[in-house]
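User: hey, got a sec? need LysR family transcriptional regulator folded
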Amino acid sequence: MKNWEAMEAFVEVVRQGSFSAAAVKLSVSASHISRLITQLEAELETTLLFRTTRRIRLSDAGELYYQHCRGLPEALSSAEEVISTLNQAPIGSFKMTCATTFGERYIAPLMNDFLLNHPKIELDFHLTNRSVDLIEEGYDLAIRMGAMKDSSHLSRRLCDREEYLCASREYIDQHGMPHTLAELSKHSCLIGSKTHWLFQQDGQRKEVKVNSNWRSNSGPALLDAVRKGLGIAQLPDYYVADDLASGKLIPLLTQYQYPYSGVWLVYPKVRQPSPKLQSICDYLIQRFKQDPPFAK
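Assistant: Yep! Here you go:
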């Protein structure tokens, strides 16, 4: 295919940030990458990259070209995989990501079980609370929480998820409990990676911006702070279900509790789900249905 190798090299240079890193990724020499980019620019009669000794920078034409072709290498790989693995067991590399605690508790053990039956899968599993760019960073699958807002991706629902506003009995004894959403501003609110809390008021979804002098991107750290009476927090069921059942934590403003949000399997729209991706998604959904890990 005309310019295909050069286009793939260009995309990888932009992703990796250098010719040498792209060369390592594609298992070729840096000089070969440089020649491909030069030939591509000559073919297109425009400059795509500005090169210095320290960095590369996209030209306006390069930015436009990259936005149009950045998903094509994965699309071709996926198309080839669909054909070559129609009658085969899942095989090859698979890169996925999930929020840290949810991934450690629930997804990693299931994926490890999956690999016992599919040893030809090469799993690259990243646990992070950062919202990654699936296409830019080369992920096949992301597991995400809450409302789906990005229509550029496809998704399947893995399970329901509820969030609870709660505090320790010690905090309530000392500071009382809020009775309306407006009263939250009078309390010590502890927040995680989100600056807004989700509620339902008069049948409508309502997000409340929270001001706080305590913040962490760690769910376990947030839970510890709530348990120790530092304030009020909104945490998902898989963190607080046991503490609520035992009375260690007290649910608050239950009349405003949002019914549920979801946990989603998310993958790029640019690719037809491969047998490998399809198999993993089907497996995770089936396991969550069979044995819900945080069912009431």
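Quick note: Residues 99 and 129 are 5 Å apart (CA to CA). Let me know if you need anything else on LysR family transcriptional regulator.
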